[in-house]
Specification:
It contains 8 helices and 7 strands, in the order βαβαβαβαβααβααβ. It has about 240 residues and is of the alpha/beta class. Bound molecules: NADP nicotinamide-adenine-dinucleotide phosphate. NADP nicotinamide-adenine-dinucleotide phosphate binds next to helix 1. Belongs to the short-chain dehydrogenases/reductases (SDR) family.
Amino acid sequence: MMPAALILGASGDIGQAISRRLAADGWSLYLHYFSHEQVIAALQSELQATYPQQDFLTLQADLSDLSQLNQITENIFSLDAVVFAAGVTAYGLLVDIPVAQIEALTRMHLVAPMALLTQLQSKLARSGSGRVVFIGSVYGGRGSAMEVPYSTVKGAQSAFVRAYSQEVASLGMTVNVVAPGAVATKMNQMFDADTMAAVQAEIPAARLATPQDISYYVTMLCQPEAAYMTGQTLYVTGGWRQ
Ligand SMILES: NC(=O)c1ccc[n+]([C@@H]2O[C@H](COP(=O)([O-])OP(=O)(O)OC[C@H]3O[C@@H](n4cnc5c(N)ncnc54)[C@H](OP(=O)(O)O)[C@@H]3O)[C@@H](O)[C@H]2O)c1
């Protein structure tokens, strides 16, 4: 049977790259989005036309609102992998970020994934080679001024996979983080050209990552053969700030 993956944030730049690569590898996909309905509709029709033997379903939910998670879980049948590629940052000094925004960030990056996994774990276990991959961040390790809550929840994702991987390893499941450095996506569009040039000058690989640089490692971790590496955070940063 065709393997199936749930991609949270499939409408994002990294999420789309992951979706395209998994589809090319023969996966059927549940494509989650939040606000960009047209992006996900275009992705769905592109993938359905290219891979007519596979299934591509779309699911909408705000991950910062836990009451919406059943819009995802109630529509999932069999499942072999979950990729958490949704995310936003809160940019500013900690003292200037409203507590409500810190709470929303925590729900979206941490509480919602844990709540979803409590619902989906039995399906992943039934797969025999269940895979869970988070898109974390290099800031989860090193931390960053001006993005303190974001760095905190990303670091907590790495702590979560270290712990949870031990709980589910005997079920054949692996749980890992792929932690990018700076990726050329719309998440960084709020920064001006000078700021981005300064970031690029710091990166040993001398360029930002493309979404494809990141999706390569995600699809690798989703393979049934990737059965014995778990609880890890893979830094994919071009050598930057590791
Ligand atoms: N870009 C980077 O430099 C970088 C570096 C390290 C880590 N990351 C991480 O990589 C992941 C993907 O980011 P990206 O660069 O691909 O950004 P992106 O293109 O802005 O995509 C963000 C994704 O998150 C979804 N999303 C936003 N708010 C949401 C909410 N309240 N509920 C549910 N989904 C929501 C978006 O859905 P809609 O578009 O449908 O609203 C979209 O699918 C994030 O976890 C990010 O923290 C990015």
